[in-house]
Amino acid sequence: MTRPALPILRRSHGQIVALSSVSGEIGLGMRSMYCAAKAAVNNFYRTLRVEEPNIRISLMIIDTF
Predict the structure, then answer these.
(1) Average pLDDT for consecutive 10-residue bins of the chain (65 residues)?
(2) DSSP 10-55
(3) Which residue numbers are catalytic?
(4) What's the CA gap between 61 and 32, in Å, rounded?
C-alpha cells in the first residue's frame, strides 16, 4: 500500500503517520503475536526512512500504550 502512494506523497510533500504500540519495542507476556506485529510496523517505517533518504515525506510513528 505504501509503495504505490510514494509518488503522490513525494509530489505533495505529504506525510505518513503510522499508529503502533510501545508493545513493538518491549515484549508483553501472552501477547507475542501482537508485539511482533507492532514491531513489524515500526521497523517497516524505520527501514523506509533508510531506503528513501531523499523521500521529502514526513514519516511519523506514534507509539501508544
Answers:
(1) 83 89 91 95 91 82 90
(2) HHHT-EEEEEEEGGGTS--TT-HHHHHHHHHHHHHHHHHHHH-TT-
(3) 34
(4) 20
